[in-house]
Design a protein that fits this description.
With 233 residues, this protein is α/β, with parallel strands linked by helices. 42% of the residues lie in helices and 25% in strands. About 3% of the residues have low confidence.
Amino acid sequence: MSKEQKHILLAEDDVDFGNLLKQYLEMSGYTVVWKANGLDALNTFKEHPFDICVFDVMMPKMDGFTLAEEIVELNPEVPFLFLTARKLKEDRLKGLKLGADDYIVKPFDADELVLRIHNIIKRSAKKSLGTITREGVIEIGNYSFNQRRLELIFEDEVQQLTEKEANLIQFLFDRKNQMLKREEILNAVWKNDDYFSGRSMDVFISRLRKYFKKDTSINIASSRGIGLEFKLG
């Protein structure tokens, strides 16, 4: 599907800014439906399919966070990002916890927004990039991962894994392209979220970054105070 076919739902209550942003996105090749409040945006989402949603946080009738919660209930697969004039850490954390793919503070460069939208759509379209191709083997970017044989293969190079390394890769891959809390990973893989388990996880994450470093489409990104994201695509 070409970029010209991608549909964006934009919810922004500032008329001048919303109109300007709509025009800029359309000039960049997107089809944009713009609504000036959260309630109208929600009703529009129920009637038409969209590839991505861009929500202002502070809006009349329904704020961006509430709108996002409603959208996730209707279709959890649709990516969305927030625009806001507020720089509060609490707002950013709340947005990410809702599952936002990005959170952009105003004022921002329009070209940056277009690039972020493009990357989110591209990443969303590549969710099938990591797929099971044969029994026990998963393709992760340019790597082949065999959990049963505890092997990570890049071209002709075989990295022998420990059982915990393999379990960690499997857990992160199953939840690729989403922010994971540290305690969530620890409880699932280490069965404990105490201090020593946390230090152990940091060591394992460093190892995995080295193992996957030959494919630039794979990135294990840390967000201080939040957690980790296994980015693929």
